[in-house]
Amino acid sequence: MRVTNRMMIENSIRSMQDNLERLTDLRTKASSNKAFQFASDNPSAAIASLNLRSGLQANQAYLDTAQSTKDWMEATEYAFSQMEDLATRALNLAMSGLNDTLDETNLQAAATEIDSILQQAIEVGNTQHLGKYIFSGFQIDTEPFELVAGTPDTVIYNGGPYSGGIQRNVSPGQSMTVNIDGESTFLPLFNALIRARDGLLSKGIDG
Fold first, then answer.
1. pLDDT tens for residues 3-31?
2. What CA–CA distance (Å, rounded) separates 5 from 146?
3. 3 state SS of 97
4. What Cα–Cα distance (Å) separates residue 154 from each residue in 34, 85, 193, 204?
5. Distance separating alpha carbons of residues 183 and 159, to the nearest angstrom
6. Measured between alpha carbons, how far is 85 from 68 in angstroms, rounded to an integer?
7. Confidence band (pLDDT; 50, 70, 90) for 100?
8. In the 3-class helix/strand/coil scheme, how is 146-201 assigned residue by residue?
9. How many other C-beta atoms can be found within 10 angstroms of the C-beta atom of residue 48?
10. Which of 84, 109, 117, 137 makes the best surface tag, with the fewest CB within 10 Å?
11. CA-to-CA distance for 179 and 164, rounded, in angstroms?
């Protein structure tokens, strides 16, 4: 078969068209970050890609949950640290009130400071993380603690039940509790602060 100039030109054109199609395909893949555009282009690879993407999405969800859980628990730990400092200071004040040499002025000053500690402790009990109350059981949108004036004053809990706590899945088959029972943890402390404050005031008045 004699190869004519026309045939050579036609072959060159087909070759250039093939190269252009390949370049277009590569450019599309590069711009879309996809090895193929449609599942029908490569069914087996499409299935593998979908499985991989599903796994990556699941792992990312676990990572996001783990990070949010870590942030929540760090906020809880910081609140406990603050509460511990307040309780320690209140204990020292209450113990100083046992000293019979303190006069009424000193006793009232100690009672006033404990009252301030009580207010601060309630604020800590009402700590929020990203707008959610961390010590309010499942009712994370409800402020848990409220001081009600009376004789004596009382602190009431407005949060929800603990019931095992809020569980979060942090990895396949593994969950963890992210909150603590604020009602049973803090109400006894609040009531003890009220009793200590009122006891110091009464001692100051009675002499």
1. 554 665 556 556 666 666 666 665 555 55
2. 96
3. coil
4. 64, 22, 10, 22
5. 8
6. 26
7. confident
8. EEECCCCCEEEECCCCCCCCCEEEEECCEEEECCCCHHHHHHHHHHHHHHHHHHHH
9. 11
10. 84
11. 9
Between CA 167 and CA 172, with CA 169 as vertex, the angle to 5 degrees is 145
Residue 179 structure tokens? 């909150």
Contacts of 13 (CB under 8 A, 6+ apart): none
pTM of the predicted protein model: 0.70
Three-point CA angle 130, 58, 37, nearest 5°: 120
Angle at 4 between CA 3 and CA 7, to 5 degrees: 85
The DSSP annotation for 103-153 comes to -HHHHHHHHHHHHHHHHHHHHHHT-EETTEETTSTT-TTS--EEEE-SSS-
Question: Does residue 196 contact residue 87 with C-beta atoms inside 8 Å?
Answer: no
> What is the CA 162 to chain-centroid distance, rounded?
17
Alpha carbons within 13 angstroms on the beta-carbon side of residue 58 total: 10
Distance from the first to the final alpha carbon of the chain: 128
Encode pLDDT of 29-85 as tens digits: 555 545 445 545 555 544 555 555 555 565 577 677 778 888 888 898 999 999 999
**Which residues 6+ apart lie within 8 Å of 129 measured at CB?**
71, 72, 75
Cis omega (within 30 of 0) for bond into 161:
no
